[in-house]
């Protein structure tokens, strides 16, 4: 690990050790961010979450002493931010707060819209308030879903302007936020996230809050989501990568919602965490900005993603692919009434490239190979045992 005196930021200024209050530190993004901060900086972390399984290796000294040097720099607080008086004090003691806490699984937006709105708007209000009142910097995680649908999606299917970047490329400072009707409860998440963004921006404009807003575009990698019935609820529906991984691990066809025609871009978690690291250590360049963090070069339809994952999984597991690797299901059947979707999510990278010089590096094939190798190594045996159990007991 570099000493604090030898590290400089993008403007050549020394990077002083920070105390970071990280809310949601035990999740997918939080665990990777904690690892990077522990390994490469002298910053300290107040890690706030209700679970710590994904960061346990940072919190407890290993027998060989490999991670014991981190124990003095990371402290875990089992806190539910809905109702815990310790939160304000931890924000006061820190230099910077990073808020990652959210319900962010599409299956929940329809079935738990109230929880989704509360989690992403109401529960975030005290965090913003404490940062603003105590003059503390905030990095808040939003979502690419705030953009909703593209302008191009409202044009006729074969209209040439659909191919014009002006009609589909999502820009932080100019693209409108277009959502479906109120009956489409799937937009409960995007609306709540947009409103908290507007509130943070207003706190900056009226009360001088130093903020950065992050809009992730499908960050993918090890430890993402859960595998139903193994380390998550058996009736749960995780996001697309874990959904497809679950099917591959079980030898089942991958379910394509409405034919898998939606287009997405995917970025490797390690690349994305590098962008956040730059935001943490370059406040002069990051404050007051909203940043898209994604990889426009890794654009595929969900159907193409399913085909790639089938091929990659066959390679990493040594198991032959199914004769019929995918099946089509309706969104109503898969997610329930009130589902709606955005057509394309392709980030414009101009602002983050200009401010932080960041560009993603990892190709879609490489990030899928790395992630599916992890999924197979972590879950294949547990799934085999879970599948065998009913047969053994019958």
Keywords for this entry:
394 residues; seven-stranded parallel sheet; alpha/beta; two-stranded parallel ribbon; globular
Please provide a written account of the structure.
- The protein is α/β, with parallel strands linked by helices and 394 residues long.
- Helices cover 39% and strands 15% of the residues.
- α8 crosses α11 (302-317) and α11 crosses α14.
- The chain is globular.
Summarize the structure.
The chain has about 400 residues and is an alpha/beta fold. About 40% of the residues lie in helices and about 15% in strands.
User: Could you say how many structural domains there are in total?
Assistant: 1
Low-confidence stretches: none
CATH topology tier name:
Rossmann fold
* CATH class designation: Alpha Beta
Helices, by number, come to 14
> In what range is the share of β-strand residues?
5-15%
Overall 3D form: globular
Q: What integer is the average pLDDT?
A: 91
Task: Specify the helix fraction band.
Answer: 25-40%
Major sheet: order of its strands?
3-2-1-4-5-7-12
Summing up helix and strand content along with how strands pair, one would put the structural category as: alpha/beta
Give the name of the CATH architecture. Answer: 3-Layer(aba) Sandwich
- What's the alpha carbon Rg, rounded to whole Å? 21 Å
Order of helices and strands: EHEHEHEHHHEEHEEHEEEHHEEHEHEHH
Distance N to C terminus: 55 Å
Multimerization status: single chain
Q: Main beta sheet, described?
A: 7 strands, parallel
DSSP strand tally: 15
The CATH superfamily name is NAD(P)-binding Rossmann-like Domain
GO molecular function: carboxy-lyase activity
Protein name: NAD-dependent epimerase/dehydratase domain-containing protein
Organism: Aquilegia coerulea (Rocky mountain columbine)
Keywords: NAD
């Amino acid at each position: 690990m570099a000493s604090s005196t030898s590290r400089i930021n993008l403007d050549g200024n020394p990077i002083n050790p920070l105390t970071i209050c990280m809310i949601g530190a035990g999740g997918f993004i939080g665990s990777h961010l904690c690892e990077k901060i522990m390994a490469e900086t002298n910053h300290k972390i107040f890690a706030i979450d209700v679970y710590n399984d994904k960061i346990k290796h940072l919190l407890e000294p290993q027998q060989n002493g490999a991670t014991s040097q981190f124990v003095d720099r990371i402290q875990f607080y089992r806190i539910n931010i809905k109702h815990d008086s310790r939160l304000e004090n931890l924000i006061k003691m820190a230099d910077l707060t990073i808020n990652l806490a959210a319900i962010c699984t599409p299956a929940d937006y329809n079935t738990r819209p109230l929880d989704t709105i509360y989690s992403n708007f109401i529960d975030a209000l005290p965090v913003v308030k404490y940062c603003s009142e105590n003059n503390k910097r905030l990095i808040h995680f939003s979502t690419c879903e705030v953009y909703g649908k593209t302008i191009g999606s409202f044009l006729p299917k074969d209209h040439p302007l659909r191919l014009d970047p002006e009609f589909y490329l999502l820009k932080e400072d100019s693209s409108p936020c277009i959502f479906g009707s109120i009956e489409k409860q799937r937009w409960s998440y995007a609306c709540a996230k947009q409103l908290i963004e507007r509130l943070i921006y207003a706190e900056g404009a009226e009360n001088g809050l130093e903020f950065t807003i992050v809009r992730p575009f499908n960050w993918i990698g090890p430890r993402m989501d859960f595998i139903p019935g193994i380390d998550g609820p058996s009736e749960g529906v995780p996001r697309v990568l874990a959904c497809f991984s679950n099917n591959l691990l079980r030898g089942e066809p991958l379910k394509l919602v409405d034919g898998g025609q939606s287009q997405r871009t995917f970025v490797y978690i390690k690349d994305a965490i590098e962008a956040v690291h730059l935001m943490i250590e370059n406040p002069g360049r990051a404050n007051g900005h909203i940043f898209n963090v994604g990889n426009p070069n890794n654009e595929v339809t969900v159907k193409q993603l399913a085909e790639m994952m089938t091929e990659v999984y066959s390679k990493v597991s040594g198991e032959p692919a199914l004769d019929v690797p995918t099946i089509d299901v309706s969104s109503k059947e898969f997610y329930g009434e009130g589902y709606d979707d955005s057509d394309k999510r392709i980030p414009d990278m101009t602002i983050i490239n200009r401010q932080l010089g960041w560009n993603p590096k990892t190709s879609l094939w490489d990030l899928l190979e790395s992630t599916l190798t992890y999924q197979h190594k972590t879950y294949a045996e547990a799934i085999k045992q879970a599948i065998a159990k009913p047969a053994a007991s019958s």
